[in-house]
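Support request from a user on the community tier.

User writes: "When I paste my structure tokens into the form, the page sometimes reloads and wipes my input. The last time it worked, I copied everything first. Here is what I submitted, just in case something in the input itself triggers the reload:"
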């Protein structure tokens, strides 16, 4: 958790959040630079592998600049994310493009920017990249994303590596993919990759991944290629509540060492959540309160439009009150959106609250702001980065006038 209390005042690093609420309109996200930096260093010092930050978890340019300054590469899934990574100066040789549905424009942009590798997700895509590379007169470094048919033992909606999931190329097609690549003269096979899901807590799942991917390397080898890079995906589990345990980096490190000593290829991971989730909090104001059928509702200005995870995945985020008192009460915290699923937390105990108070929704640095929406014509939230006792607004709150201005009324409806 990023927020700490000092004399009952809530701080992120050296910045008092009460002071932020007096100058910045809620809801807003706050990230701690120190926490992100420390998390990355802990990971980097624990495991012997290259790290690519999965930009989808938090794509704010300030966060990407921080990642760049730490020397991390980027894993992107669209030309939009690729533009973001390039615009902060992440070197193109440190960028991997991996996405289940890439458009022609996405691929051309990636080819023109000479990135380290485009990971292909279907045989059809393989052919399409070859055609585009030919018309651009380029040789393209590719990786093959496999679907290893492994169950990540995580939430159904964030599982990606079972054979029935839409991601990757079926493992059994690997020899066929290799023969195809031999024919496609514009393509250079650099690596193979997989990502079997998010929030993996059980180290045994990684053991399964490593086994299967080593087998994949052998198959590729037997089919006449030797790869340079083996990308083992992201998915490192973080603990959002006390019952969950964080993936053990010690165990992961031993596993890596036992599987990948003296290999002729390098190995890499592409974590998103692990690097940023615990370094962000979402600050929200209580707009009103009421009791319906003995449930005490606190209705906040953050909701599923600001943080979709609880509504979409039933995800748990710890909520702390910024003002304390000795009376404890059970509350259900709900957003302002006209949907019954817009609940941020059910039946949690908080110090007694009143309208106008502020709450912090914890561990929201990953898949928070990036998944926010304009539903109910709500504006996207501001984002703040804290560094020691300084803070910077790294994204302004959107203006409702900007959203409305995007709509176009056709002439035939104007009088
Ligand atoms: N690599 C690939 C190919 C991915 O699809 C993903 C995430 C990652 C890496 C990073 O996974 P991570 O280390 O962050 O678990 N919106 C969901 C999470 C969706 C993850 C999608 N893919 C959530 O809020 O839980």
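"...and here is what came back when it finally went through:"
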């Amino acid at each position: 958790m990023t927020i700490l209390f000092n004399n009952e005042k809530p701080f992120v690093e050296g910045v008092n959040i009460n002071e932020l609420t007096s100058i910045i309109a809620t809801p807003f996200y706050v990230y701690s630079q120190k926490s992100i930096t420390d998390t990355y260093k802990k990971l980097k010092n624990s495991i012997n592998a290259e790290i690519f930050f999965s930009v989808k978890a938090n794509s704010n340019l300030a966060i990407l600049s921080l990642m760049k300054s730490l020397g991390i590469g980027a894993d992107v899934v669209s030309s939009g994310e690729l533009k973001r990574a390039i615009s902060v100066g992440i070197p193109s040789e440190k960028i991997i493009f991996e996405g289940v549905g890439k458009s022609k424009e996405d691929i051309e942009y990636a080819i023109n920017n000479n990135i380290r590798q485009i990971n292909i997700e279907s045989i059809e895509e393989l052919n399409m990249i070859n055609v585009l590379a030919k018309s651009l007169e380029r040789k393209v470094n590719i990786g093959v994303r496999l679907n290893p048919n492994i169950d990540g033992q995580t939430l159904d909606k964030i599982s990606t590596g079972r054979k029935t999931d839409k991601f990757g190329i079926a493992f059994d097609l690997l020899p066929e993919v290799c023969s195809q690549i031999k024919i496609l003269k514009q393509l250079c096979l650099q690596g193979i990759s997989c990502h079997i899901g998010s929030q993996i807590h059980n180290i045994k799942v990684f053991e399964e991944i490593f086994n299967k991917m080593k087998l994949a390397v052998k198959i590729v080898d037997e089919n006449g290629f030797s790869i340079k890079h083996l990308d083992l995906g992201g998915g490192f589990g973080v603990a959002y509540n006390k019952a969950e345990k964080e993936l053990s980096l010690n165990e992961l490190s031993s596993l890596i060492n036992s599987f990948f000593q003296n290999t002729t290829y390098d190995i890499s991971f592409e974590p998103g959540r692990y690097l940023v989730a615990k370094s962000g909090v979402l600050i929200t104001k209580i707009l009103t309160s009421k009791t319906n059928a003995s449930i005490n509702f606190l209705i906040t200005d953050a909701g599923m439009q600001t943080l979709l995870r609880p509504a979409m995945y039933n995800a748990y985020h710890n909520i702390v009150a910024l003002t304390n008192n000795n009376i404890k009460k059970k509350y259900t915290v709900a957003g302002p959106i006209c949907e019954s699923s817009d609940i941020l937390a059910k039946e949690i105990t908080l110090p007694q609250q009143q309208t106008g108070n502020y709450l912090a929704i914890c561990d929201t640095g990953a898949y928070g702001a990036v998944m926010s929406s304009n539903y109910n014509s709500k504006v996207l939230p501001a984002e703040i980065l804290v560094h020691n006792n300084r803070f910077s607004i790294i994204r302004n709150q959107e203006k409702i006038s900007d959203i409305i201005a995007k709509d176009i009324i056709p002439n035939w409806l104007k009088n």
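Agent notes: The reload is a front-end session timeout and is unrelated to the input. The first helix runs from residue 17 to 23. The longest strand covers residues 280-292. Escalated to web team.
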